[in-house]
Every structure is written in structure tokens, then in C-alpha cells.
Amino acid sequence: APSGFRIMLVDDQSELGGSLLWNHEQADDEVGTEWLRRATLKLAQLENVMLLARTTVVAAWDHGYFTAVQQCDDSASGQTAQHLWKIRSRQTILASGAIERPLVFPDNDRPGIMLADSARHYLNRYAARAGSRAVIYTNNDSAYLAALDLHASGITVAAIVDLRKEPQSESVRRVRELGIKVYDGYEITGTHGYFRIKQVDIRPGQNNSNKPADQVRIKCDLLCTSGGWDPTLHLLSQAGGKLEYNMKSGCFVPRQQQPALARCVQAAGSANGCFEPAACLAEGHEAGLAALESLTGKHPQSGEPQAPIDSGPVLDIKHHWRTPPPCKGRQWVDFLHDVTTGSIETAAREGFTSVEHLKRYTTIGMAIDQGKTSNVNALAILGESSGRPIADVGTTTFRPPFTPVTLGALAGREVGLRAWPRRLLPLHDWHVDSAGVMEDHSGWQRAAYYPGDGETEAQAIRREVLAARSAVTLFDSSSLGKLEVRGPDAARFLNRMYINNVETLNTGRVRYGMMLNENGVIIDDGVFARLEDDFFLVSTSSAGTAEIVIAFEEWLQTEWPELNVLINNATTQWATLTVGGPDSRQVMTSFLPGVDLSATTFPHMSVLEGEVDSIPYRLMRVSFTGEMSFELSVPANYALAAWQKLLEAGAPFDITPLGMEALDILRTEKGFLEVGIDTDISTSPLDVGWAVPISKKTADFIGKRSLSRPNDTRPDRLQLVGLKPQDSQQFIPVGSHIISRTSLQPEGHITSSCISPTLGHSIAMAMLKSGHTRQGEKVVIDVDEQHFDAEVVPLGFHDPKGERLNTL
To answer: ∠ CA 88-92-98 to the nearest 5 degrees?
Structure first.
């Protein structure tokens, strides 16, 4: 600190001081907490020293770069805020301590079993006694300090079970003087108790021929275990540091010679495998001098370390990794994932002898534990099972973060509406100014409906639906994906991506298509148009655009690099305005004078390009409502001008803006599939009635092979059907279960539902077990424990033959 260099002292606890806050150690002939108070005050007065409490260094990156998360009280809001610190350090000292290791023995997962140092910590810092009658199980001296503290607080220490024979230390002597029974050379063979541990069974160790008389049963409501200490070296490893196993202390410690990348990071104290408190302090002092020498190039004057701590055990440990047979009960190694010694032995027998393979085979050391309490025991047991010393087994890779971190802390200070970028359509301001109720749909802000004066939500949606069926509507569909696929091999490429036959599509025509992943699961649908022989326009769903772009590029770059194809995501470059309804042709004819849009010249599923007022446009005759519709795409900057001109052209026909809620009802009336709503991550095209189109395509496509698997051709799969409730005005909520009339077991669920304004009665779409063979059958729908009958009907409630599309 007196050197003038900028220093950060980072501590994850609410108060600085580590174990001095609760271990009752002495420093300079005074209580350690008092010495800590003076030392902290002195550091706080130095301008070049920053003290950060409640701050966890969660990751070490390259070249001295660290990230830390600080918990801060926000007094204004009464909530806890987080700060993300990005620290670039020239020299780093890890005084991160060590984590006590549990012992592995039969039935070691009962309530009331905890680490010895944890019981001591609860007692001395928080005045919380973990039990009233304790047994301590250990293989080292440190647990004897816990026994002394527990005894001093009035907790009965029934016994200390020490795996070592004739342990000798000052703390052991003090325990014996208090009359506490020490079973040296014994091991635990089992525990008893349900809601809490009640008894432990012990026997003399290293002798598998023990007689029943050798067994001892001890009553207790607390079992404290200590299997040694593991230095907290996650950050050193993340920084590129290497570890080695120290047989004397029974743990992994930093290797003496470190790679160049990790030389600016050094461990001190318990993190360096030093477990004697006075030596820890001296080692920290030396680490500070070494860091200063590295920064200045000069050897600093070495004074005596301040406040040498004069008590505490030297770690004398017996290597012990589990209770050997004969014994009953499972021995737990990873308490988070319920991994036992048997799981590790099975992994070794099946050839998973690499530590990384063991981790993935058993899930040991994963998630929030990150090997803190389980890894060393697991590595040693793997070594025993595969005939290797633990030093040869090695360690798994320590990955950031050290402790779980909220996504908000990493993503930045933007939360709430700013947590994710709001995607606005080119006409967003018009929708807002026109009283559109804006909601998030597929990541875009879109108008759900446009209420008129005094209209309720239901009334506005009903009006919009009826306008689409009887007159004309205008819908902003700019969020639809618009992927331009060009090149000599464009048709061949898309033919592999789509279920449909792309190569037979004529220029100027449009085709509905569906795409699958390798498992034969539907990932998106939409239309694709052939603008030129080597130029296709792929229209994806609003939610699926990013996924399809990634899929296209992945297949082109990794599987078919020989194909000459270019992909351009033009979604935000074009605004798409959809004019739909029986009067839509008249409106479009007024908008595009001189363009023949008759049914013979421009039939359903056609596309053309042109200019209007010197502005380029693309026009497709496709429909998501079942009514004659025209999708007009213009450059995004001209969206408002085109929209207003369409409103003027449609004024004589009482043109009506259409919202998302009405559109969903319109497509449900037609029985049109919506990916992600009527499908899930297991739905195949066979489940939605696409068996015939697939059978007509002989060329290969992504997912084709998977569709022939037995699971995909099972007759009892969930299949998409229509439902007509017997009570014509009974609305069936989406997600309601279809249950068997006899067994009351689930047979499917509702995916889309509405009371149709066009038909005047309730309709629904559902995924139903063996649904395609159950047309006309009556099924039972469970809604809030009330049962309603419905008839299974074909999809397409309104205009099932498509006459309104194809004959107009």
C-alpha cells in the first residue's frame, strides 16, 4: 500500500477479513477482529487503495483481465443493485483461501450432516447452533478447533471419530483434556435418522474382518465432517495457471513453475496450500513484496509481516476417499447432482477414465458447484477405480463464472423494456397515432387491434375480422422474413432445404413451403417466390427469420461449399403491406393503374416486380386469411407513403386496418398452421398432414431420413386436427387438455381456439393422439376440471375448398 501503486482489495463477504471474523484467532496479542478493524481503517485512509466488500471476482481472462460482481444496496428503490467491475491488473494476489472437503461414507446425505468449519462459522459469527449433540468425523487436525468451539458454546460433543491413529497436536491434547471421547483409527459405516440424523455407526478402520463387537453406535443430532482443505484456485486456473497434487497436504496446489500468461497471478496463504495461520500471513506479506518487485524491477525492503497470528493447526492429514466394504448404503460424492461412488466406479468400468469424460458421464462438479466440494473426492475415487494415483488423474477445467451471475449484471445496466432491443416496424408511429394497441409479437412491436371510439377489445377484433371477410383490410406484415437467395445453384440449394420441390417452380410463381431440421422437426414455414431463374425470394415467419438465416449459412458453409449461392437478409430493407378481402383487387388496381391483376393474368400464388411513381415494388398474391390477398413490398423508407396511398385507394370500400388478434382468428377459421403455436419441438410434417406432398418429392432434403424412423411413423402420435365444441358458444382456452372418456388420461391439447365471428360458433385446433384417424369422433376437453364434448373435424372451418382464393 505505501508504494503508491493503485490497489484493489476485493472481498466477497459483507465485511473484510475472511475467517478472522469468526475463528477467534489472536493477532499481536489481541483479538483478531480488533487487529482487523485497525488494519482495515489504515487501508481505507490511503487514497491509492480501494476496498470492495460484497464483491466476487467471478472470472479471470487473458493478460490480467478480471470481472467482478458487486452487490450494492440501492437506498432509493430499496432494492439490491449490482455493479459489474472490469479490472485490468498488472499483478494479482489470490488470497482466496480454501474450501473444506466433505468425507465420503455411507448415507452421508442426511439432514444434520454438515462441514465442521460451517458449524463453527454459524456458531461464532451468527450465534446459531447447528445441533445439541455432535459427532465430529475427520482425517485432519482442523476439525478439533470446531470441537473446542462447539464444546465451549454448550453443545455436547459426543465423540470425535478420527481416521488417523494416535493423532498428535495441541488441539488434540486440549480436546482430550476436556474429556471428549476420541475414536482414533475409526471410520463411519452408516448413519440413521429420517427428518434429521439420530445415530452414526463406526468401526475400526483398515480391517475388513471386524467383528460385530467392534461396531459402535453413537447418538447425535449433528454430524460434522472434515476431509481436509482444497485451495480455491478457480481464478488461477482460468488465468492459465497449472496445478499439481501435494501428497503431504492432500490437495491440488499451484505448480511451482507457471506458464508466462499466469505469472502475473500468484496465490498466497491457504490458496497456496499453506494452512498454518501465522505462515499464511507471512506468505501474504512475501507475495506483496514479490508483486512490488515485479512492478518496479527493484527488490523492496522487506520488513517483518505485521500481526503474526500465533495459533492454529498444521495440517496433518490421512488420505481417505470413502468407506471401504463391507458397508451398506450409498456414498454420495456430489450432493448437487446426487452422484455416488457407484456412479464413478461404473464410469471407470465403461472406459470413461478421463476426468472430462467422467464429468460429462456423471454430471459431477457441474452447475453452481463447479467442483468446489466434490471434485477432489471424485478424482481420487476415479484413480482408485482405474488403478492410478490422483496426481495422474488430473483435474477438470475450471470455467467462469466462479459463482452464478445474473444475466442482468453481465448484459449491462439496461433492464425492463431496455433489456432487449425493441424492434419497430417502419410504420410504428402511424400505428401508435391511430390508437393501435401495441404488443410484442415475435420480437416486434405490432398492433394487436385498433379500437374505435367506445369500442371494447372484443368489439374491435370482431369488426376487423368481419371486414376481412366482407370488404377489405390493410395489414402491416413488414416483420415477415425476406431472404434473397441468388446464384446458379439457388434452386438446387433451396430444394435441399425445403420439403417442397423448388426446382419445378416457374418464374413468376410462388409456392408454400416447409423446412425441417435434421430430426425431421418443423422449424419454419412460409412461401418462396421465383423472381428469376437464379433469384428466389424466401418469406419466413417473423419469429423464424434469424434461425433460418443461420441454418442457410451453416449448410452452405459447412456441408455444401461447392454450391454457388449468396444469401441476403433483406427483411428490414423492405416494408410489406397486405391488402386482403373480397374488395382487395379493386384497391390494388387503383393503387397500380395499368397493371393487370385479373384472376387469369395474376392468379393466386403469383409474383411480379415493377415500379410505381418511380419506386420499386414486389407484389405477391398469397394469403394467411383465406381471402384474396396481395402482399405489397416497397423500400422501408417509402412505407408510410405507400400505406397512406393504399388507405386513400381503399376509402371507397371502407378499408379497415387489421391487427394481430384478428389475423389469428382469421387463420384459425381457415385451419392454417402456425409454427410454434400449433407445433412444438417434436412435431413432424407427418403430424400436420403433409404425408402426400412429401411422398411426391423424390429428391433428398434435410430431415427426410428422420421421417422414416419408427417413432415418426407411429400411428398414435399427436396429430393436428380441428375441433368443434358441442356447446357452440363455449370458448376453449389454448392449452386445455383433451382426455380419454374412459381412463381420463391426457390424449392431446388445444393449440388454437376462438369463437369465430364469421361462423358464429366456437372452433379450435388441437394436437390429438391418432387424430387423423378419428374424424367424426367425440372427444372430451378438460377446462378447469369441467368437461366439454367436442367433435373431431377436418381443418378448414371456413371455405374448406379454397374457392374464395382460387376462383376470384
So the answer is: 130
